Amino acid sequence: MLYQFLRSATWAPTIALSWFWGLGFFYAIHVTLTYGWIGFLAFALPNAIGLALFGWILGAPGRSPEKIATTIQGPYAVLFLVCQFLAVAITIFGFAAYAWMPLFGRDTVLGLVMLVLVACSIGHAIPLRRIKIVHGVALILGVCAGFVLLAGLATESHGSDVPLSSLDERFYGLALPSLVGFLLGPWMDVQQWQRAVEIRREGASVRVAYATGAILFGGLLTINALLASAAGLGEPVVSFDGLPGAYAAVAQATARSHVAGVTVAFLIWTVVAAATTIDSFYGATRWLMTAITTRSNSPLLAFVPSSLVSSPIWILLAAFTAAVAATQLNLSLMYLMVPFATILVGGAACLVCETLGASRRYDPVLSYMIGLAACLVFLTGYIQPNWAYLAIAPLIGLVGALPMVTELLGWGGAPAASVPQATDEAAAKPVVITVARDEAIASHGFDGQWFVLSLIPTYDDTNSVGNVYFANYVRWVGKARELFFNTCMPDFDLKSTDFYVLTKTFQHDFRREAVEFEPVSVRVRIASHNRKFVTLAHEIHSEINGLLGRGEQSLMFVDSVQYRPLDIPRSIIEGFLPYWPKSSPHAASAVPGPLGANSLSA
């Protein structure tokens, strides 16, 4: 029992630090100095409790984080990616505007870029199970630096007594958005999903890991609240809206301090908090995007390397640009925090409901439109201020999740009908085709999406009993497949190709037998595909006895030098494009019919 607890608790540092982004780091300072200790608790408790509840729900017995993550990665991908974008933008903006610029002025871009590159390198090179060790060491270093900084600031007269409470209308209005945003926040953070999956894979307890992580996270926030108390209000940073903020109070106190080591301690404390968020972002985003692209059938992946599509670098560049723009526009941290309590809450609530068992009724477009309306209401109430506008904004954002919430609570009607899936029996229903009869041995060509080879067995194809020998059915399917390839890719040259097509699996279900001189048609079509494999379905029909058999084969592609598995080559996609199944995103708008250029020909 003790071993299991310790094994689970080793995940606490990386859980706490991955959630200790610019939002929690600098807002803890601001809210303590602006609203007092009651204000700090109103911010910190929902934040830590939301983290613990995420682990408690996802780690319930019989619930598999990995299976749930696999199911929701695609439908909620935009939610996860927007959250990651905002998390990194908040982190970069916060540390630039409220940590390094007060110390070094505006000549901090090079240092900030170096920090981001080093953190991303760690996230790229080290898997999560080892990052948790790195974060454990970083946590010890950061906490020691935090206490050194606290002791240094406390020896000088910067500090002021933080009141128990200093509440105003804006604080009362922010109470509900803080509660909603922080309780739902971990659900939209793919960093936490990745950790829950890895914790379960390791055999540790998700509940114990997140409970200890939440306690540790609360402790980190408390350190910043104590630093705020020791630093004092300083000179508030006034944003473009005319509202003062105390986010940079600790950095300002550090810049004024004459105590040796205080600046170094502050830099270590802030760098640890920033780097452990950015490396977590990089690893988790790549984990998500790799999973999505692996299952994707998009033809774009045949032209663009999947590693480039799944790279977090694009989101990182967008976040860096947004952070620079926010700095130039003199925004406050609040404007980057708002989406977590408005725009994204509808999708996050749907995600929670689906995890708890509700059927999926998530409409992302509707949720985001409602969320944008909620965001406008929030900003109106924040600037005025108007506590009612602030309080109602997250409730408006939750409207998009009402169908799933009411179903979960048993208040709604019947669940939304699921999309009917085609059964094997329906898929196997013979397709009536018209093939031009030719008295020659064989004719071939396309009839819609089917490639048809017509032939007449002879004595050469039969066994001693007079029936067609079983292996010849397989040979005929192979012949039809090669003619199919030749029709789709007439310029393919085996001597100069840089890839080979291999048969991964082959399956055939025998139904009836044919005899010599019984006209037979062998039909082949593309049944399905993913990034690496194409499945061909085949049917063999007799003009006399009907269906003789059916089956399928799976094709894979390897390079012609080292036989290394490849994604579906571009030339294959281009050649097969008119004949993908209609359900495929590759399907052409018009499939050549029997009278087209590729119609049946002798």
Shape: elongated
Largest sheet: 7 strands, antiparallel
Strand content is 5-15%
Number of helices: 22
Given as residue ranges, the uncertain stretches (5+ residues, pLDDT < 50) are: 414-441, 589-602
Structural class comes to alpha+beta
- Tally of DSSP β-strands: 9
How far do the termini sit from each other?
Answer: 75 Å
Helix content: 55-70%
Can you give the mean pLDDT? 86
What is the radius of gyration computed over CA atoms, rounded to a whole number of angstroms? Answer: 31 Å
Pfam family, one: 4HBT_2
Keywords: Membrane, Transmembrane, Transmembrane helix
Transmembrane segments: 12-29, 35-58, 78-103, 109-126, 133-151, 171-188, 208-233, 266-288, 300-326, 332-353, 365-383, 389-411
Organism: Methylorubrum thiocyanatum
Describe the structure.
- The protein is α+β, with helices and mostly antiparallel strands.
- Helices cover 55% and strands 10% of the residues.
- The protein has helices at 2-9, 12-18, 22-58, 65-72, 77-104, 109-125, 128-154, 169-184, 190-201, 206-231, 249-256, 262-295, 306-309, 313-328, 334-337, 345-355, 364-383, 387-397, 402-409, 424-427, 470-488, 570-576, and strands at residues 237-238, 244-245, 442-447, 450-455, 499-510, 520-529, 534-542, 546-559, 565-566.
- Strands 3, 4, 5, 6, 7, 8 and 9 form a seven-stranded antiparallel sheet that branches. The chain has a two-stranded antiparallel sheet with strand order 1-2.
- Strand 8 and strand 9 (565-566) form a beta hairpin.
- The longest helix is centred in the N-terminal third of the chain and has 37 residues, at 22-58.
- It is elongated.
- The protein starts with a helix and ends in a 26-residue tail after the last helix.
- Mean pLDDT is 86; it is low at 414-441 and 589-602.
- Keywords: Membrane, Transmembrane, Transmembrane helix.
- The chain crosses the membrane at residues 12-29, 35-58, 78-103, 109-126, 133-151, 171-188, 208-233, 266-288, 300-326, 332-353, 365-383, 389-411.
- This is Acyl-CoA thioesterase FadM.
